[in-house]
Amino acid sequence: MNDPASALIRVERLRRRAYLTAASGSVAAHLFILGEQVRRQQWDSAAAYSLGLLVSAWVLAALTWLRWPTARLSLLIVGVATVSTVSEFAPLLRAPEVQTGSYLSFLIVVALWFGLLPLRVAAPATLLGFLAFAGLAASRPAHDLSLLAYLACTAIVIGMASSFGQQITAFQQDAVTFQQASLTDPLTGLPNRRAALGELRRLHGQLRRGEHVGFTLVLLDLDHFKQVNDTRGHAVGDEVLRALGPALRQVLRADALLARWGGEEFVLVIPGTGAQEAHAVTARLDGLPLPLPGPLPEVTFSAGAVLGHEADSVAGLLDLADRRLYAAKRAGRRQLRWDTLSGASRAS
């Protein structure tokens, strides 16, 4: 799939694998460093490395056992990495020079800032951090200004690359939000006509390729809804439409799609149903009154149902369902019809 939502899912999976790899490597590295410090009896940075080991192990547990999303770990990782790095730099105040490894540690923290924090936070943090680190390095008796210049250029490159990545992610999130809004009815919160048509086309295409047994399409229209608007006001009418979805959901299968088709019309798409099962499923809807939360009135609906194989196109299915819906209205409303005649309704 190439839609924005799928892209974000792929990004999260990639980020999770990266976190797992980094955390596993960090645990191994911290264990090795602590082992070397114990062997050499060097305890200057033992506390910082011990903290790093604990956090790395916690990240592994949160990802594998607690199944936390990566965004939930970002602030923890950044905070601990920053504190650990500052603790690592503290002994440099007494050292004659800043070793190359400290430059690398600073770049790692900068990469974490830009990778896990908003740019408006990462950029000033990097600037302040660089000024503090440069001041520390330049104040040592032995220092290399060319390394500081290289450090500044590398930090800028990391920031630029991160800004591009964050912009792409933001565009994808905006696209997902827009896509969801374009497929959702703003009044009821149900899928809208566009979403229902997309699902119908998908199921009808699969049916024609023989990928499933079939599906059922039902068009529903609330009975005498105009009277609700005329006698109780449009605000109450809107509340009725909003309450319809939860009321119908109580009698529908979990995999059924209920969408607002327009006005007081709704469409129901039930996948994986042949003729016999379709008849059993829709029998629960035939003549069903919908008690809505008080003080809303009880409502009923007329409906027309079709099986997915009864027409060669989605437009043909909708037309047939619409004619059966109006047959239900002509026959007295509050019923579901499988035919356009005056006889008993039956799934065929």
Summed up:
Helix content is 61%, strand content 9%.
Topology:
Blueprint: H1 4-40, H2 46-64, H3 74-89, H4 100-116, H5 119-138, H6 145-182, H7 193-208, E1 215-222, H8 225-232, H9 234-249, E2 257-262, E3 265-271, H10 275-283, E4 301-307, H11 314-330, E5 336-337
Parallel strand pairs: 4-5
Antiparallel strand pairs: 1-3, 1-4, 2-3
Organism: Deinococcus arenae
GO molecular function: diguanylate cyclase activity
GO biological process, one term: negative regulation of bacterial-type flagellum-dependent cell motility
Textual characterization of the structure:
This protein is α+β, with helices and mostly antiparallel strands and 348 residues long. It has two domains: 4-182, no CATH class; 193-337, 2-Layer Sandwich (Alpha-Beta Plaits). The protein is built from eleven helices and five strands. Strands 2-3-1-4-5 form a five-stranded mixed sheet, with helices on both faces. Helix 4 packs antiparallel against helix 5 (119-138) and helix 5 (119-138) runs antiparallel to helix 6. The chain starts with a helix and ends in an 11-residue tail after the last strand. Residues 213-341 form the GGDEF domain.
